[in-house]
Amino acid sequence: MVSESKEIFILGLTSAGKVFRPSDWAERLCGVLSCYRPPGRQLNQQISQQHLAYSPYAKPTVINNVKCVVVDERLRDIEPMAMTFVLNFARDNDLQLLDACLLPDEK
Questions:
Q1: SS3 label, residue 76
Q2: InterPro entries annotated for this entry (predicted)?
Q3: Sheet arrangement for strand 95-100
Q4: Which of 18, 28, 33, 61 is the most buried (most CB within 10 A)?
């Protein structure tokens, strides 16, 4: 299966290999970006008040025991300033970035 989207992985490791703190940084960053969604896919108002739902364009995950945020490059099309914010966050905190594509789990 080939993915059409390209993703940027922000690793919770500095360029020196130290673990980035606070430990919930990935969830916080994705929480800030939770409002960005594909056109026509806004959250139901009642659901959005009960639970936080992350944007499909920015998802927290753990890869090889390292917290990461996977950012879909389509975020740039939806809101260029949000992509700039994410990339500046990574740069300002000296976090490692990887261009990649997250593949779905095989079933």
A1: helix
A2: DUF3579
A3: 58-63, 66-72, 7-14, 95-100
A4: 33
